[in-house]
Amino acid sequence: MNISKMALETPKSDLDFSDKQEAKQPSALKMASMTRRRSSAASTCSYSSACYTGSSDEDNVSPRENRQRNSTGSSDFCVKNINAQQAFGRREIEIAEKEMPGILALRKRASEDKPLKNAQIVGCTHINAQTAVLIETLVELGASVRWAACNIYSTQNAVAAALAEVGIPIFAWRGETEEDFWWCLDKCVNSENWHPNMILDDGGDATHLMWKKYPIIFKAIKGIVEESVTGVHRLYQLVKTGKLTVPAINVNDSVTKARFDNFYNSKDSILDSLKRSTDIMFAGKQVVVCGYGDVGKGCAQSLRGQGCIVYVTEIDPICALQASMDGFRVVRLNEIVRQVDIVVTATGNKNVVNREHMDRMKSGCIVCNMGHSNSEIDVNSLHSAELSWLRVRSQVDHVIWPDGRTIILLAEGRLVNLACSTVPSFVVSVTAAAQALALIELFNAPVGRYKSDVYLLPKKMDEYVASLHLPILDAHLTELTDEQAKYLGLNKAGPFKPNYYRY
């Protein structure tokens, strides 16, 4: 399949691969932060059915110090307490499968052909029940995989244990330290007698590590599939500097990912995560949503539907006009920061909410992030001598000023919906199917089809992903007649829209 190259001028940014874009804490605070993470975040969130919290003595032991084996004797994994949690995790995966018709249909149709035979995929994504369905689909299609988490707080330990039990090399647990994070990813990339030839990334960390630390391995990569705005920005920076040596597919900007996962997932999960973590009543609350892309649109519309008064901040005049015509007041953050009850970031940028903003917030203001990167909220500035932190729930911190004023910070500025709740399986199925198809396309593409550049999925593939999800919704497509197809100049089987069409 030919994939249409994305013609997009990438603005200058500092999201390149020269440095990992992770918040770095002052050294004096690292140990306290690690202790807090170990004690409160190492086991999974107790507010979600998919976040199993065990009572094992091993909960306080780092998985790196606890060598385990699955029922077949393999120890090529590192997860929390495989024996206690794997059965629960398997049930979670089975529940997710019932709401993921698209990826299961793709698994069934392609399992005999094994289109990923001999593919060796390094994955760095969120590890939850939905991702597990994707991982097991890739294996069913012939791939060999090794997997790590892209977020230190979003891993569902029971699901990771279930994957390890069936022999999938997985290195992840909830509440990793930054050092653990890179150790886990390194274990996936640099493995004896196993060399990756494909990357499935969410944020660019696997690509970053391989490109910087293992350049010889990176040269053997046939293709990269990236699903986040942060990772896509990083890839375009590599293209711009002439350092990208392999083709990549930008799944984040495919129609099915942007219009369905980004919008509907955010619309559904923002309420779930805020309610589970804070028990807040939404009606009448004043909320500011920073960014009005697909994620921001979903958040703003969902919160307004619950009776919130919603403001929007934007740098883009087109998005700002959309927000205004959707009935939201577009403001600068410093104009309303004193009065809002909830601040939600959804920009993919850095320091959107800074210390000056937080110094002016009212006591009890909830601050959270729905963008991919953990850099949108300047959490580093809150690690200062005059402020104190109090962990009140898993992923919920009270940051207390000297005068007693408090802000409520969720998930330490990381993705709140994956750290504090679960996500809807159905819409994740859409993205998972697109990711699987992108991997199949790049792995099987003849030499010369793709250059060392970033490409989008073609409309035909996007339409196929959407069609896989229609039967379960009892949706019936109207078919063009020969005369109608000729009139529109279309093939009756599609694609039905040109690449420039904006849905």
From TrEMBL:
Residues 1-76 are annotated as: Disordered. SMART domains: AdoHcyase (SM00996), AdoHcyase_NAD (SM00997). Residues 40-55 have a biased composition (Low complexity). NAD(+) binds at residues 293-298, 314, 417. Its cofactor is NAD(+). Pathway: Amino-acid biosynthesis; L-homocysteine biosynthesis; L-homocysteine from S-adenosyl-L-homocysteine: step 1/1. PANTHER family: ADENOSYLHOMOCYSTEINASE. This is Adenosylhomocysteinase. It comes from Bactrocera dorsalis (Oriental fruit fly).
